[in-house]
Amino acid sequence: MTITKILATSDTHFQFDSSKWPTCDVFIHAGDLMMSGEEKEWTGVSDCLAQVRAPVKYLIPGNHDRRIERFESLSQKELEDRGVNLVLPSSPVVYLPSGHSMFCLPYVPNLPQWSYSKTEKEIMDYLYGWWSWPDGPDIVVSHSPPYGILDKVPQEGSVGSKAAKSWWSLRRKKPKIWIFGHIHEGYGSEVVGDTAFYNVSHCDARYKKVNPPVEIEI
To answer: What are residue 199's DSSP bridge partners?
Structure first.
């Protein structure tokens, strides 16, 4: 496989400016493209994704992306027309042009007032439906962090997905890279065992767009 240069971000929360971002082979947005998630935001955020300088682009939705959850097929078609691949939970496995496999998970635990919310048991059941995939994935992109990894919130501690962490812990072959956002305070990277984890949240805890997208090679 050839080396692929990935540029990853998440939690842009409405319009963002990518004009000074570096070029890349693959762009990944790990969710919370929107703020309120309502229709009035859709054209603006679609334009922003279309303007990112990358030949291949993927969006994995997050809990703020209400419009996508309500109109998945329509959103997927509209983004496809703009050169963006919307990866939905009905078909979560994609392959990069380099041949690397990528598994995408939009679900967040226990936020029933938001989009793509599931209980930990529901997330576990969904993940274990893919347990028989022995050779993959090379990359995981989720909106929520796995529990205990770049997921701490002041006064609350770790708030990531325990189901996602369990799925990772029990897999014989670990993904090389795991990209996520959701917890703005967790921006950064950490290597655990054979996996490099990246929290790529663009916004900080005050929703200020201060964190640059993260360049990753695989």
So the answer is: 180, 188
- Tokens for 138? 């090379």
What tens digit of pLDDT does each residue of 119-142 get?
999 999 999 887 667 677 999 999
For residue 15, give the nearest of 36, 39, 45 by alpha carbon. Answer: 45
3-state secondary structure of 142: strand
d(CA 97, CA 78): 22
Neighbours of 185 (CB within 10 A): 16
pTM equals 0.97
Measured CA to CA, the distance from residue 96 to residue 76 in angstroms comes to 18
Whether omega for the bond prior to residue 137 falls within 30 degrees of 0, making it cis, is yes
Per-residue pLDDT tens over the stretch 55-96: 999 999 999 999 999 999 999 999 999 999 999 999 999 999
Taking Cα atoms as reference points, which of 65, 54, 56, 81 lies closest to residue 12? 65
Burial of 68 (0-12, 13-18, 19+ CB in 10 A): buried
Burial of 166 (0-12, 13-18, 19+ CB in 10 A): middle
Q: Is 77 helix (H, G, I), strand (E, B) or coil?
A: helix
Going by the DSSP 8-state scheme, the letter that residue 21 receives in this structure is: S
Distances (CA, A) of 138 to 11, 77, 185, 210: 23, 26, 26, 29
Q: What length does the chain have?
A: 218
21-24 — which CB contacts under 8 Å span 24+ positions?
21/52, 21/53, 21/212, 21/213, 22/215, 23/53, 23/54, 24/53, 24/54, 24/215
